[in-house]
Amino acid sequence: MLKVPPHQVAGHEAVDGKLGPLVDESGRFYKPLQDDERGSNEVAFYRSLSTNSGIPEHIRRFFPTFYGTQLIEASDGSGLKPHLVLKDIARGQVNPSIMDVKIGSRTWAPEASQEYVEKCLKKDRESSSLPLGFRISGLQIFRSKELGFWKPGKKAAQKFSTEEVKLVLRRFVSSNTLNDLDLEPDCALASTVYGGSAGILSQLLELKAWFEDQTIYHFYACSILVVFEKELALEGRNPGAQIKLIDFAHVYEGRGVIDHNFLGGLCSLIKFISEILTAPNEGKTEVSAKDDQKNLTNTDNGVVADQENLIKSGNGIVADQKNLTSTDNDVS
Length: 332
What we know:
five-stranded antiparallel β-sheet; 11 helices; globular
C-alpha cells in the first residue's frame, strides 16, 4: 500500500490532492517524473550513474539505490504516471532527525534560461547560499515522544541567515534543547553524530576527496541529506548517522573540469561541522537564544510536533539527458 512519506523535510508534498512522492512497505520511494525534459533527464542521470565505471564503489553508497521506473497511481488522483523508484532513505528509522543541505553558492546551471537564473539568484541572495556556499532547505529534529519534532517551515528554513544556519548545525546535535528551545545548544551529541570514523564528518571528507578529482558531473542545486536517530545517540548507541546526495535536477557533464561550485560549498559545510567538533562550547552565534527562538519558529508552518505531518520530497533528481549517456531500455 502506497502512502505519504512520514519523514520529509523539503520539496513538494503529496498532500491535499497535490502531486508528490509516495513510499510503500517494502522500503521503496516513488518520485513522480516531471512531464517536461527534467523527467527524462532524471532517468538518464540514474542510468548513467549506475553504468559509469568511473564512479568508485565507496562513493556509490552516497547516492540513493535506483530500481528503475514504474507506472503507479499518482497522489493527485490524475491516474497512472511514471515514477522513479528509489530506496527509501528513511526506511527503518523510527524518529530520525533529518537535515536537507543544498550545496553550492550557485544553484543554476550554465544552460538555464535568464528567467530561471533570476529566480534562483533571488533565492540564493535571500539565504545563506551566497555567503556560506550552502543553505538549509528543510529539517526536522527529534525532541521527545511527547513533543515530537522541531521542524521550521520550509520557506523559513531556506531563509535562515548565516548565524541561524550555524546555530541550527549545533542544535541538530544537542541534547539540552529537547524541552527548551531557548537554551544555547550544548552539542552533546556532536562527537557521536558528527565525529568518529563512521560519523558525518568522516563521510563528508570521503565525498570531498572524490569531488577534488572527479570531472564526470557538475551538480547544481544538489542537496546532501543528513540523517541520524537521536534517541539512539542519547542512549550512547550507534545513531546510524549517514549522508546521501539527492536532488539531481540540474546535473551536467563535467567535461574534464572540477565542480568547484559544489566542492566549495561542501568544504564550507565541512569547516563548520569541524569547528563544532573541535570547540563545541565556543560556537556562540551573534543571534541570541531568545531571538533565535523567535526567528526559527516564526515559520510558514510553525513548529510541527506531530510526526505524521512531517513531509519532504525528493525534489527532482535529474540530469541533462543531452549530455549524459543512457541506455535505450527502461528499468521497471
